[in-house]
Amino acid sequence: MRQLASIVPGTSTGLTVAETDRAVIMCGVLGEVDEILSCGPGTPLPPGSVAEQIMSIDTPRTEPPSPYSAREWGRLLTRARDHGLAVGHLDALGVHTAAAPVHAPDGIIIAAVGASVLDAARITALADNVRRAADMTSATLLQLHRRTPGTRSTRLPRPPLP
Description:
five-stranded antiparallel sheet, 5 strands, globular
């Protein structure tokens, strides 16, 4: 997370997981976004966030989050799956965010790495690095899995997002 945050000064980064009914930040590095929006560990993200889009690729909601229609939500998930990245913004706050999937060794998405800034031009510069950080996290999980004797599956029980 620190490496990702250091690429563009002021970047807020986080690792997000799905909890029972929402996406929640587990850890990260505080940046400029944290001055206007709480993004610390345990913070739930707004419904339909880019992190939720990423984590919904494998287990989509039965109903799309507000304010998305089923069609629009489906398009966002397809785009995120095709690009391995979701990018979005919160208009009211001027926050721009990119998120990419973290895969368990068996290929399912178990988390999302994200980065947020207050300038759209800087999120474009971060997008490939967000994807790279998520890929590195996935690779580290795979290495740990291979080093653990007797490990068969890494499928973690994860409740679906609403």
